[in-house]
Amino acid sequence: MVLIGLALRIWFINLSPLDPRFSASDDGDYYQRALRLATTGEYLDNSWLIRPPGHIFFFAAVMKLSLWMGDLALTTQLIRVVHVGFSLLLIPLGYDLARRLFHRPAGLIFAGILTIWWPLVELPSLIQSEPLFFFTLTMHCWMLVRWRDAYHAGARRAWFWLVGAGLVLGYCALTRSPALYSVVFSLLFLAVEIWRGKGGPLSLWAGRLAVTALALLIPFASLIIPWTARNYLTYGQMIMIDTTGPINLWLSLQDERIDGGKSVLAGMAQGERQPFASAEIREILRDDPLRLVRNAWPHFTHIWKAQFVEDFFVKVSFFSRPVREMALLGLVGDLIWLTFCAASLFAVTSRPHEGGFRLIALGWAAYSCLTVMLIHVEPRYLLPLWLFMALYGAAALGTLALWFARLRRDAPAARTEARAYLRTPWFGAGALLCLSFVVLVVTYRDYPQIISRGLERERHRASAVRAQADGDYARAIAAYEQMMATDPNFVDGRLELARLYLALGDYEQGWNVLSERHTHRGDVVRAALARARGDLELAAELFTDAEVRAGEDVQKLGLAWLEPAPLTSLRLGNGLDIGYLEGFSFGETLPSTDTSPPQTYRWLEAEGRLILPLPEPLQESDVVHLRMAGGIEGVTPLRVQLGSTEVTIPVEAGAWRVYRLAVPAELHGAHELEIRLSAPTFIPLQVNPTSYDARRLSVKVSDAGLE
């Protein structure tokens, strides 16, 4: 199972283009704050709320390792390596947890879910807090069960597992603060297990519970208290970990858009925001108490959706996720999800055999549902619910497998046992909940129609892709239009047709076909259309915004997707160079002087290339020019490759100079000029102690072309 899990996770990571260096979402915020911590030792909170710090310190430690290895770009891959390691460790750990709580078949089924269920295959690729949170929460539960078994066996070192459970839960809470509530669930678990263990008078039970609880609480508090003290010293407020709970609840209670609430918070000091949000919540609920639950039922029903079908057939875009490539795994994953959800309802309503652990499972399930009912539904809020439903679903399915095995060995006894169970109130409660779950799923959406429409959409798209590959553009356009007619809200389908119109030079049609719904990839195509139509200001704005916010390498995407207009001279860094280059940092501008206007440029990183489609074939007299400046004192040896010819240019630091190279004879008559560049790099923060710029840079390039 571990090898299968490893193969699936590596496969998914290789498919995913997401990169936090280019993201304006949470992963980008985490990356930038971890970068500042790694390079300057300064921890900064998020610009509009205080978030948990645990994963930031972990990311910063990995960045330190990457910098020591000389390549900050390794950070994302190293983080994913650790995440994959944790994800794979969960497989045997989950097996042992379910085996100890229930039986070996439950362990095998639970391990199988952890191996192949698609949300858990995708999870390690995310540069978010969730991979660490999910791992530490599961490990905390496993350690509690290990303590239970050691305690009931009379082992002397049973306390060792409680200390570990406290430390792990403390770090779990520092990655996502809802883990704080698990302290209450865990104490209830300890109370039940101690009561079951040795009996005796109530006072003796209370004394044992107090001593045992301290073994859990002291290590837990040893991680939480220092951060709480830091928050108090920094902001003068008692903030245990973060301010996300009150602020998210306040935002969800507003009538206006969330962005409006964020703009209000932006005008306040960080320490004033939580008291303000809490006061606003009290005022809102005093005037309209029912506003708290106005979305509770719609949000609750959304929890039980078919997870992958929603992503593939309902959402307006894949948002750069490789959803289509993982369709088979995802659709199988939905069957797994629906099966273990339904089965878990029989397990949690059966006669308890796993002791106090059910209180932890029910506590987390209730908290997860309450959170999304009051705020909004996000998959990351549902991770604990998924964990415990998968665990109890595995228990029910494993019990069913054991019954079938008994049916083969001793059919009369197995049938008698089954009839006895069917007459119990336990089965009645499970059947009622399972029926309610099925009703929620089948009434939430018309899934047969959605899947049928989605498959038709995909058939039309496949026909369009084949026709386009064959050069039959009329048939391709007709197939894309059928796809749009089938699913008019699917932005990615409109995007593909707009790309075809862009390639055919029909810019007006391409512009008209794009939806008003903006996505980052859509804005790349929208920018290319604006550039082709001559609206250079809009094109530069859209390209620049997409490059820093898209969550993926837009330079690489531009080379793969766009066929920009021929030219003989390219200005770098002005927002209009996407589609012509790869391997450069974001555009920058030199300040203007009395004698020159502002000058844009880009830093070349370790390796890059410029691809210039030419209006006329290369001639014998053509000369390549590169306007460049070195990055550090002295000379930077820049290797320039034209065709099979490689030349090293000593690029001097400081002054901008134009460097010229003759076009090799082998390229004469070519309609495209590819210039490959590579040079040794430096990291600014290692050169300048006042800098926290950890990019790998080599030389600055402002212009390239022919003369």
TrEMBL record:
Listed Pfam families: PMT, TPR_19
Membrane topology term: Multi-pass membrane protein
Location of the ArnT-like N-terminal domain: 79-229
Keywords: Cell membrane, Glycosyltransferase, Membrane, Transferase, Transmembrane, Transmembrane helix
Highest taxon above the source species: Bacteria
InterPro entries per the UniProt record, alphabetical: ArnT-like_N, LipidA_mod_glycosyltrf_83, TPR-like_helical_dom_sf
Localization of this protein: Cell membrane
TM helices/strands, residue ranges: 72-94, 101-120, 126-145, 157-174, 180-197, 209-229, 326-347, 359-377, 383-405, 426-444
PANTHER family xrefs: MANNOSYLTRANSFERASE YKCB-RELATED (PTHR33908), MEMBRANE PROTEIN (PTHR33908:SF11)
Protein name per the record: Tetratricopeptide repeat protein
Organism: Candidatus Chloroploca mongolica
